[in-house]
Amino acid sequence: MCKTWLGCFVINTSLSIALGNPPSVKSALDLSTINSILRKQQVPPRLAIDAHIQQCMAKYHDSLVGEVGVSVRETLVQMCEQDLNALTDRFNNYIDNHAAFNFHVAKLHLYTLALVREKQQSKQYDHLELGNHSVRCQQLGMAAAHRVIDIYCNDLEGAGAKRAPDSRLIGPHRALPKQFFVGVLLATFFLLRYFVLNPASDAEQIATSRNKVLMVHAKLRQFTSHQLAEPGRAATVIEVLSRHGDAQRADPSEDIEDRGVASIVWNALISAADIRGRRNLRTEWLEKINPSSPALRTDNRSSRSPDLNVQENPDLGFVDLEYPLPDSVWDQSFLQMLDFTAYDFNDIGA
Q1: Residues 284, 290, 292, 293: is their CA dihedral positive or negative?
Q2: pTM of the model
Q3: Residues 117, 65: contact at Cβ < 8 Å?
Q4: Contact in structure between 306 and 243 (CB atoms under 8 Å)
Q5: What are the per-10-residue average pLDDT scores of the chain (350 residues)?
Q6: I want to staple 232 with a disulfide (CB 3.0 to 4.6 A). Which of 1, 196, 224, 333 is the partner?
Q7: Are 212 and 149 in contact (CB under 8 A)?
Q8: What is the pLDDT of residue 229?
């Protein structure tokens, strides 16, 4: 029973943060109970590592997204970093690809939460102080995103490793387990937003991050069983953003900023939809979040055909698509996009 509860806690906390929701288990009593379980029960080391990682994120989440100053948030980020890094020393002999992936996704969640919250508060604080901390979070987030993508695209299959492939994490006919799929999408959209499509970034960082994005795109294409299966749709979004990065929405005031980590993913999907001519996707999603709030229905632009004069980015190395981009992909909300029950992969692959 304790192991089952811990497993549910790990997945629930990770996906809650990824989808822009606060952890449901986060009180001091809850977190102390987790410590008690881990101390008194015989828990497999890998489950213990995952539980400690998500316990750390649950502990700091509300403070990170709360009304605190830049210096306080920077201190909170450093404290959470120290707690996470201590786990790698404590469980060094038990950290496999599975645990390493979750560890770096948690770090990416940490830096993304700080960046998104600071963007919300950017008008309230000194821009120099805010800028220095934001740059630090971007750099550390880039390192975490690179590691997430490396593990996802290479290490999970044992590429270059002496051990056998870790087939538990990749099933060619079922795409990828949702926890890992969501994590690698966040890493990809993080790199696109802050580096690949950011002309102010260092040229070397842009090139390195672009290569990581290409790795994810190739992996998703490899493991999709159908162009409308989740990996195929995710690859389409990545390709649209990468090819037409200059056509992204220029007005940052239209960004969704109050959904934590999910803000990065939602803004990427909305930008891709805008490029494809689906101009009212933002309104539809905000109405689903809170349909009773008139403030969330300010974007009344109607859908129009794509801009045929959009300039492609020739440096990203994509080959031409073998099939047209389906318009129906934009009828999927973010949550529907991540719903594996929407498609019967066995029937498609038959």
Answers
A1: negative
A2: 0.77
A3: yes
A4: no
A5: 86 88 89 90 89 95 89 93 94 89 96 89 60 88 96 66 44 52 92 91 93 93 77 87 67 67 86 75 63 41 40 48 38 41 33
A6: 224
A7: yes
A8: 76
pLDDT at 337: 44
b/e per residue 196-213 (b: at least 16 CB within 10 A): bbbeebeeebbeebbebb
Asked whether the beta carbons of 74 and 133 are under 8 A apart, the reply is yes
Q: Rounded to an integer, what distance in angstroms lies between the CA atom of residue 19 and that of residue 165?
A: 29
- Distance of alpha carbon 277 from alpha carbon 242, whole angstroms: 16
Res 159: pLDDT: 37
For position 50, what pLDDT does the model report?
93
Residue 157, token pair as written in the block:
């299959």
**Per-residue 3-state assignment (H helix, E strand, C coil) for 199-232:** CCCCHHHHHHHHHHHHHHHHHHHHHCCCCCCHHH
- DSSP letters for 30-72: HHHHHHHHHHHS---HHHHHHHHHHHHHHHHHHHHTSS--HHH
Residue linked to tokens 């009828």: 331
CA distances from 9 to 5, 26, 241, 308, 337 (A): 6, 10, 34, 47, 23
Give the whole-angstrom CA distance, residue 213 versus residue 100: 20
